[in-house]
Amino acid sequence: MATKKTPTKRAPKKRTASSDVTNEQLLEFYREMLLIRRFEEKAGQMYGMGLIGGFCHLYIGQEAVVVGMQSALEERDTILTSYRDHGHMLACGMDPDGVMAELTGRSGGYSKGKGGSMHMFSEEKGFYGGHGIVGAQVPIGTGIAFAHKYLEENAVNVAYLGDGALNQGQVYESFNMASLWELPVVYVIENNSYAMGTSTARSSANSTELYHRGAAYGIPGMQVDGMDVIAVREAAKIAVEHARSGKGPYIMEMMTYRYRGHSMSDPAKYRSKEEVQKVREERDPIERLRAVMLKKKVIDEAGMKQIDKDVKAVVSKSAEFAQSSPEPDPSELYTDVYADA
Amino acid sequence: MPIEILMPALSPTMTEGKLAQWLKNEGDSVSSGDILAEIETDKATMEVEAVEEGILGKILIAGDTDNVAVNTPIAILLEEGETEADLANVSSSVPNSVAVTDTVAESSTPAPTPVSVSGPAVEFVAPESEWDGPVVKTTVREALRDAMAEEMRRNKKVFLMGEEVAQYQGAYKISQGLLDEFGAKRVIDTPITEHGFAGLGVGAAFYGLNPIVEFMTFNFAMQAIDHIINSAAKTRYMSGGQVSSPIVFRGPNGVASRVGAQHSQCYASWYAHCPGLKVVSPYSAADAKGLLKSAIRDPNPVIFLENELMYGTSFDVPDTDDWTVPIGKAKVVRPGTDVTIVTFSLMVGKALDAAEELAKEGISAEVIDLRTIRPLDTETILTSVRKTNRLVTVEEGWAFSGIGSEISAMVMEQAFDYLDAPVKRVAGVDVPLPYAANLEQLALPQSSHIITSAKEVCYRS
Ligand SMILES: Cc1ncc(C[n+]2csc(CCOP(=O)(O)OP(=O)(O)O)c2C)c(N)n1
Ligand SMILES: [Mg+2]
């Protein structure tokens, strides 16, 4: 899929799509995407066994988006997203053990078991949640970008949101302020075509293409094949550089797809099995990268197997930790409500 | 070792479901992510995916079987190189499933009984020390401005944002002069976008800045209440103590004068309801200044409820740039022995007027200015009630689920034996606030209502 850009006056010049990605980076992308995939499969399985409660939104299918984006960021940059957040946390280097243990509600979880699947944070890794109210992360991310600018840190915030979240009023309030104040924020719309059971066609007036939603605010936008990690990375470099250099916000529309249900319990009546199967067969981000790497002889089958094995071990360890870590002490019920003045 | 595939649950409450059909046959090789089977409940269908790769060695429960219990083995997966002969020594795909059951059983440690304290359990808060230095006559408006200016001088991370706070000098002139002194970077005019700038402020606070977000009035903060509660108040808890929101939301609250129902409402009980927030509502200029400074320094989200009708009123304020008043401490503004009147904000003035009148009739009323609504200074209230044995609460907002209701319940729970009469609540009439001058007057608590109620609890007429 070609990369499209909004015809706004601040749109950057087209650049060649050639990539400077090294073989080591390709391997890293592969490993990270596979880690997310296997982690999520494991989470789904553990949910099925009653070890994880409540809502659990899996990221399977969308791995290339966050892995590609993250590769264009620097350590001081920050990110935040919605409730579909496990992939983002793994991609920014958070410990799989701590994430899985939060899913099982154990004291070893990132939020000591008080947050759950949708609410985790790591100031150390620049991850600011984990937000359960659709769209709420967008002004918050804009505010973190405001802080980056206020503190003159030359850092960028990446605020992820869904195609459904894009219809929230507060998103446009954020676009307006971010553009007005030239805040260093990149809005990444993960367009997986559905908000629960509502397709973009049923929720978006005029067009199902979403990258131009910032046009009224002069925010450049581009559409990116979100199932191609290298395309994501190349696009991300442009958007992040734009924001970092003080030119204000940027909108990226990632064309992606979630293979699983919205949450664990999903009647799946809003799309056909064939539709899902087709994406899996033709656009799967992991398979595509695998093919590229084999063709370029970056790695051989045996090497692939080894990565599979390593990733599996990491995921198994996290699952074991998430089951052996104790439940939070009852006294934890009352802590962390207020910070000491 | 061959691996058992178990019947999964679609939700934590599901105990059994239908194994609708198998999509793979015995002998098929499967890889991770392949769909093996479909299961159904009355609510939803779900696909069972392979998590391991291997060969589907044996199907234990056939397709189209109803009432399969969760966690029943439904098939056996053979790993590479294994044959049917290995089917005997299966391992569960959940190596820890036994251990898990154990943990669940263990977790039946008795949970602490829910405590019925009013508001958060707070430590004793020492009152501010008596000021015997010089004082200056200052309006509440100037006191609020001075508090912000002093804190902005003290800490570069403090900034003010809101509608008309900069160039216009504040819709109610609270931020007069701040733009000149601190510049546009720290005194920021926002678009009319309450939901957005409240959320933006919370994000800045997550990252360690100390925003003061001014709402032109708190009526408009209803558009922002999601960020105030879901984002600011709850994040510290949800992050296990990692991420705080050191932010102040301030602006005029309550009834102004003749502006109709949408612009006239007290939000004290709305915010006081929520753990994670602190709620402050001062009356005097000295308290306004000292409490706003404490609010700005506080690492938690603080709702700072002002009153437009008080802005122009002058009080003595300590002549220092380091005057703070602790959050969480009420103040006895008039000592008395016969009846306790508990109130806050504008109504403190009405209560003081009422106490003056009551004194003429030989009733000695003690008036408590709460100053902070959450955390509530229950000790000061209880000490007074134990002395007077009678209580009247006064607030401008509606009585239903109001601050007076909370105080009544708290006193009933903690000082029931000391009460010589049922508590009386004086509050706004249970209607949207009318515009007509006479109706508006009738809808709001007046000194006369306080006097009548005080006499009632004293069984005097
Ligand atoms: C304000 C709000 N409204 C509704 C919901 C319930 N809800 C949770 S996720 C969701 C769909 C969001 O879809 P999208 O933004 O496309 O993200 P995706 O799930 O596809 O990642 C809805 C309606 C919510 N959490 N918050
Ligand atoms: Mg979506």
Q: What small molecules does the structure contain? A: thiamine diphosphate, magnesium ion
Q: Write the CATH fold name of chain A.
A: Rossmann fold
How helical, in percent, are the residues of chain A?
A: 40-55%
- Percent in strands of chain B: 15-25%
Q: Approximately how much helix is present in the residues of chain B?
A: 25-40%
The H-level CATH homologous superfamily of the largest domain in chain B, spelled out, is Thiamin diphosphate (ThDP)-binding fold, Pyr/PP domains
Structural class of chain A: alpha/beta
What structural class do you assign from the helix and strand content of chain B? alpha/beta
What's the count of strands of chain A? 9
CATH fold-level name of the largest domain in chain B: Rossmann fold
Give a quick account of the main beta sheet of chain B: strands, pairing sense, barrel closure. Answer: 7 strands, mixed
Q: Can you tell me the CATH class of the largest domain in chain B? A: Alpha Beta
What's the SSE pattern of chain A? Answer: EHHEHHEHEHEEEHEHEHHH
Query: Which blocks of ≥5 consecutive residues of chain A have pLDDT under 50?
Result: 9-16
Give a concise summary.
Chain A is an alpha/beta fold and 341 residues long. Chain A is built from eleven helices and nine strands. In chain A, strands 1-8-9-5-4-2-3 form a seven-stranded mixed β-sheet, sandwiched between helices. A two-stranded antiparallel sheet of chain A has the order 6-7.
Give keywords:
heterodimer, A: 341 residues, alpha/beta, Rossmann fold, 7-stranded mixed sheet, two-stranded antiparallel sheet, B: 461 residues, OB fold (Dihydrolipoamide Acetyltransferase, E2P), 3 domains, 5-stranded mixed sheet, 12 helices, 28% helix, binds thiamine diphosphate, binds magnesium ion
